[in-house]
Amino acid sequence: MIPPIARRFVAGESVPAALDHARAANEDGVAVILNLLGEHYDDPADARADADAYLDLLDDVADSGLDACVSVKPSQIGMDVSPDLFEEHYREIVARADELDAFVWCDMEDADTTDATLDAFESIAADYPWSVGQCVQSNLRRTADDLDRLVDVPGKIRLVKGAYDEPSSIAYTDKADVDEAYRDDLTFLFERRDRGIAVGSHDPEMISLADRLAREHGADYEVQMLMGVREDAQRDLAAQGVDVYQYAPYGDKWLSYFYRRVRERKENVTFALRAVLGR
Ligand code: FAD
């Protein structure tokens, strides 16, 4: 069972719990991106099992009528076995979403997998332009070129700062440089696209920039934030009419995800300690 302390960041262990969470978020005007926790499977059977779980989840989401979509991790559906297996599963999941009028995001993991992930996205988006979106990371030096390549590809693009430690030869490692790259990438997307832009950030500065760029260029966009992080801001933005999606992980592999969230910010450590101490 997930302890109360972790429930801030994880929607539950089961699909019904995740759907209940999505229902509550929808009542606040916030849509949900459901992510089954799991990554780095080197056994094809594990990758197949999670691909199947996503196929079932898409059916459940469609039956529920909730405002929810899903997000998969490449290494969860086969990338660590082979890029071909990943692409086969990714395509199958998006094809099912397309039949159901649903939507699939693909997260971006470490830089060794960027090429294979983008190749798969480009090919799948050509066949299912309304049903798929891909995450890209502004901390990678290559991302400006990748956006140039992706800007006319159908499907959505989620821009994030990047969560993986990469060497300075391929990534900006200074926060100010990452922020500058994010501003540049966001500006490029709004200059060149009129839809399909997702701002995957909690940073108030980047969210204001997106609002300004959207007005300037008349483009549609959405804001995506994590469950448990700035949820007041999520509700406020939704009340102002912004399309807000909350990324909500669920499943029994919640422990390492929870530790990552707690480690990344001082105030989350304080929150965790308070919960443990009962204050
Ligand atoms: P930061 O510069 O880290 O923070 C800016 C401000 O946001 C802070 O000052 C604070 O006010 C607030 N804030 C940020 N984080 C927290 C927190 N944990 N608790 C409380 N306040 C906080 N990364 C990947 O590499 N691949 C992915 O596929 C991916 N998918 C993502 C999907 C979504 C929907 C989101 C929101 C993030 C995703 N990320 C992904 C993570 C991302 O790369 C960043 O590591 C993470 O979002 C922190 O960067 P930030 O833009 O929020 O801003």
UniProtKB/TrEMBL annotation:
What's a single GO BP term from this record? L-proline catabolic process to L-glutamate
Q: Which reaction does it catalyse?
A: L-proline + a quinone = (S)-1-pyrroline-5-carboxylate + a quinol + H(+)
> Which cofactors are required for activity?
FAD
Q: What is its EC number?
A: 1.5.5.2
**InterPro entries xrefs:** FAD-linked_oxidoreductase-like, PRODH_bac_arc, Proline_DH_dom, Proline_oxidase
Q: What region holds the Proline dehydrogenase domain?
A: 19-271
Q: Name one GO molecular function term.
A: nucleotide binding
Q: What domain of life is recorded for the organism?
A: Archaea
* Keyword Nucleotide-binding applies: yes
Keyword Ligase attributed:
no
The metabolic or biological pathway listed in the UniProt record of this protein is: Amino-acid degradation; L-proline degradation into L-glutamate; L-glutamate from L-proline: step 1/2
Q: What keyword terms does UniProt attach to this protein?
A: FAD, Flavoprotein, Nucleotide-binding, Oxidoreductase, Proline metabolism
Q: What is this protein called?
A: proline dehydrogenase
